[in-house]
């Protein structure tokens, strides 16, 4: 009799606990969509807030400076005592110099590394090398900047005697090293997603392993590879610390890579450190340059998405 009463009591307690658990689960199920929607909404509102701030402050700048002079001017002299000049072309030229050098360094080595990891390396080597490359991507950019200034530049000066201490070549090479892991990792992922049946079919037809990699795998993974390159370029365009430390602060509208330059991000760093007072034209020029940089990176990201959709292979 006692055991029957204990069993009934325990069963009643289990029913109560189960009902409570069901109520808790129902509350969680109802609350989670609201919480997740709130998180997504905060992200969207933050993005709109950043964009609206850039647009509003940029319009304030263009109330003081002609947009034609800004877009087509070839001199950037905001601190000139006589007549400040705000032609954005020298800053764009400096940014593009560093970016193009970085692309020349990163794209060939990145794609070659991806081909090796995808087609030639053993599973053990792949598991060892790829995490090392991804760790390299996590190195702080200020470390890369000091590396460019204290190691790469002196080494290049031994090869190029006329190379200045601050130049475009050194930070361009180091930015290329910085974006190399991004290209390698994303390109290797794209190549690894190519079905093995395509490789086996090409080998069965008499193709060599190198021909399979170049003529079969590479074209099949082309959308992912191009997207990785475009994303890496947008990362190079927005790089700040490397070009600030090793590039200099002399905006010039020319093709010389051995002399001091100034990029858009380096100018923002220069002014943001306190060289201009709040509400001045120089202060608002930060936002105009930032908005220009935003347009560059936005176009690159949209281009990456278009290329990914346009050339995506369906297996």
- Helix amount: over 70%
Oligomer type:
single chain
Overall residue-averaged pLDDT value:
83
Query: What's the main sheet like?
Result: 2 strands, antiparallel
Number of helices: 12
What does this protein look like?
With about 325 residues, the protein is an all-alpha fold. Helix content is about 75%, strand content about 0%. The protein has helices at about 1-60, 65-70, 90-120, 125-135, 140-160, 170-190, 195-205, 210-220, 220-235, 240-245, 265-275, 280-310; strands spanning about 75, 85. A hairpin with a 7-residue loop joins strand 1 and strand 2 (about 85). Helix 3 packs parallel to helix 6 (about 170-190), helix 5 (about 140-160) crosses helix 6 (about 170-190) and helix 6 runs antiparallel to helix 9. The longest helix has about 60 residues, at about 1-60. It is globular and about 75 Å long. It is found in: Cell membrane; Membrane. Pfam families: BPD_transp_1. Keywords: Cell membrane, Membrane, Phosphate transport, Transmembrane, Transmembrane helix, Transport.
């Amino acid at each position: 009799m006692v055991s029957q009463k204990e069993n009934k009591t325990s069963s009643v307690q289990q029913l109560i606990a189960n009902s409570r658990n069901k109520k808790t689960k129902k509350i969680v199920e109802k609350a989670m969509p609201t919480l997740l929607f709130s998180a997504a909404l905060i992200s969207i509102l933050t993005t709109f807030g950043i964009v609206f701030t850039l647009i509003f402050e940029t319009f304030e700048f263009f109330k003081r400076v002609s947009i034609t002079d800004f877009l087509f001017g070839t001199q950037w002299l905001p601190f000139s005592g006589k007549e400040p000049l705000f032609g954005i072309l020298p800053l764009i030229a400096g940014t593009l110099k560093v970016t193009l050098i970085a692309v020349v360094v990163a794209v060939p080595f990145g794609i070659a590394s991806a081909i090796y990891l995808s087609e030639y390396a053993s599973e053990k080597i792949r598991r060892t090398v790829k995490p090392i490359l991804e760790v390299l991507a996590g190195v702080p950019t200020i470390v890369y900047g000091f590396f460019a200034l204290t190691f790469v530049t002196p080494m290049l000066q031994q090869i190029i005697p006329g190379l200045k201490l601050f130049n475009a070549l050194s930070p361009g090479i180091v930015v290329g090293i910085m974006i190399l892991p991004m290209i390698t990792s994303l390109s290797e992922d794209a190549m690894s997603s190519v079905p093995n049946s395509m490789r086996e079919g090409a080998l069965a037809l008499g193709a060599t392993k190198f021909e399979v990699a170049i003529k079969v795998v590479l074209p099949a993974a082309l959308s992912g590879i191009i997207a990785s390159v475009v994303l890496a370029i947008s990362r190079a365009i927005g790089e700040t610390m490397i070009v600030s430390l090793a590039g200099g602060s002399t905006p010039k509208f020319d093709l010389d890579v051995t002399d001091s330059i100034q990029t858009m991000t380096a100018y923002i760093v220069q002014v943001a450190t306190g060289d201009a007072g709040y509400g001045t034209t120089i202060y608002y020029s930060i936002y105009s340059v930032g908005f220009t940089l935003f347009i560059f990176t936005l176009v690159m990201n949209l281009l990456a998405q278009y290329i990914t959709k346009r050339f995506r292979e369906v297996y």
